[in-house]
# Entry
Amino acid sequence: MTSVAHLIELLDPKHRLMVEKRIIMIVAGSFEQDERRAAKALIKAPMPTQSEVRRRTNIVYNWLGVMRNDFDYSIFRTLDCLPHALRATLDGQGYEPAPANTAWSGRRG
# Structure
């Protein structure tokens, strides 16, 4: 596993802040998704602990390294795929990024 500090250093400096903000949004979004799922099941989702936030952040950074280094994804394609990779990992499902040469229509937002 690549260290978070090493991954951040490898990023183009003009993308670092954008990536860090997006990762915060991805992790927060995963907790919001947990709350929506719990509400549908008529249960209360547990409050996120610092440990769980750290665990999810580490999962995202791990996928960031895989997608950028192993699959040669652009930073934008990586950021679009990270929420799906995190959710699949949290749900115990496999996630396999598509090869970099496959079609991709980026979402901006």
Observations:
- The CA atoms of residues 25 and 65 lie 18 Å apart.
- The chain has a mean pLDDT of 87.
- The two ends are 29 Å apart (CA to CA).
- Helices lie at 4-10, 13-40, 50-70, 75-90.
